[in-house]
Amino acid sequence: MDTTKDDAAMLAEAAQWQARDLAVLWHPCTQMAEHPHTLPLVPIARGEGAWLIGRDGRRYLDAVSSWWTNLFGHANPRIAEAIAEQARTLEHVILAGFSHAPAVQLAEELVRITPPGLTRVFFADNGSAGVEVALKMAFHHFVNRGQPQRRKFVALGNGYHGETIGALSVTDVPLYRRVYAPLLLQPLFAPSPDAYEAEPGESPEACALRRAEELEALFAANPGEICALILEPLVQCAGGMRMYHPVYLRRAREICDAHGTLLIADEIAVGFGRTGTLFACEQAGIAPDFMCLSKGLTGGFLPLAAVLTHERIYESFLDDSRERAFLHSHSYTGNPLACAAALATLAIFREQDVLGRNRLLAARMAELAAPFADHPQVADVRQTGMILAIELAADKASKTPFPAADRRGLRAYRHAIERGVVLRPLGDVLYWFPPYCVGEEELTLLADVTATAIAAATA
Ligand SMILES: *Cc1c(COP(=O)(O)O)cnc(C)c1O
């Protein structure tokens, strides 16, 4: 077989897809002017396990689980089959006034596996939409309880909750928020408990406790006006994989209770085993009033979000008045295909010791990444379960960042793509967020490429 000719044909085909794409598509989270010169555009033909296979025949290790969605591998046969079977049976039905088994079974299963007290499930279509649901429900709950003055939200500095207007309002990542600020709700931002920002010599726990005191002061300054606190438990993912001590969650729960405020746990990125426990809240032994789930919920196959809440909150909406009801809807609410994908994903959790295997993988990730801490431009190597982050800095001791215009992370990205690994840094934070099906050899490759990517980014 003339492999050279095949290779040439595949390269030509990949180039064609690239050109057709750039002629008509507007890509998410992208400065389109950078394509294709600064940023390569990589047409993908198919996926297999932890790998993406390009139109040009090249293989790419998906170290970011395709934006943190994939758990058990691309084109996972079991999930694919569940969707196909559901598609041949019932692809969709309006969920107002109608019901179907996948939605019921999924809600039952989510109630069973989430922290105690979360007994009601509302479905939305994606993470941001799920956050909107939680924010609206929290406010509406207080309206129904005769406390309409409770309409302030508290969010954490450096937090991220999505891109729609409400979700972006409670987000504090300037790159995404700043332009739209004039359009947004004005929440109160409490300082992030992020351990990277601890005082010199301060432990992560002491830092979290100090930040909790500041949170309490914020609540005390706004008595009776705060409707809900929203946070990402343990890891602020989009904010640069910044991590904090679980004691902050315990204190946040106590502060919310003391002030009659609701707690919204956005586990959209950290849920489903990512941090070492099935849900991150478990590490603090708390149950939130709302839990938002999405991303890994369908194993990375289809968009779906679930918002879980208490019976007590659900009951405040029950009445003979339409106004008291939660009249929020999306056309595809509770889509059966997405529910079937989620059910297949949760069946894998039931049948396999996913968390046990993840513990071994996380330990291996820690070993492989340990040497990076010695690099003169690595200010921090941190890890929570299956998330490992490496923060680059111009000055290690003072943690002074590189000038943003240097685009150090972009250099690492381009280098890694050339070597067949998808590392997609957040600014100058390189991170590993692999699918759980990743193996020893793949982690070794990831570590090798990360080492040379760090060298390329800091040269
Ligand atoms: C990704 C993310 C969202 C938004 O989800 P989308 O499906 O992208 O809208 C919200 N919160 C957190 C913590 C996320 O990581």
UniProtKB/TrEMBL annotation:
Coiled coil, from the record: none
Names of the cofactor(s): pyridoxal 5'-phosphate
Annotated substrate binding sites: 67, 160, 295, 329, 424
InterPro entries: Aminotrans_3, Aminotrans_3_PPA_site, BioA, PyrdxlP-dep_Trfase, PyrdxlP-dep_Trfase_major, PyrdxlP-dep_Trfase_small
Pathway: Cofactor biosynthesis; biotin biosynthesis; 7,8-diaminononanoate from 8-amino-7-oxononanoate (SAM route): step 1/1
Main location: cytoplasm
Protein name: Adenosylmethionine-8-amino-7-oxononanoate aminotransferase
